[in-house]
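Human:
Focus on the backbone:
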Amino acid sequence: MKKITNLMLIILNLCACACLLYFGYLFVSGSDVVAYPDAMIPMKDWERGGMALTMGLFPLFIANLLGYLYIQLGSKKMRRILFIPSLVCLGLVVCYWNIG
């Protein structure tokens, strides 16, 4: 049971990191392309990425926290590396809100 829980938490963290990479790329690219011009609120790609990072910051932190608490990577100091995606996302969100 513990192996299944660890595997599910690892997959959750990998999916969260994949979303961080995708939306982080959209934000950092600075693209002025409007992907959905007929939408109610048309956004440029960098705005869409920044808003998605903002909404995903808390769930990403929760996923990293669960990984920190339950995945056994070694010492507690070693498990702190699981919070790196949350810190990167926080930095990008701060940049997004300071730009806008």
Notes: Residues 1-99 form one domain. The mean pLDDT is 90. Helices lie at 2-29, 45-70, 76-79, 84-99.
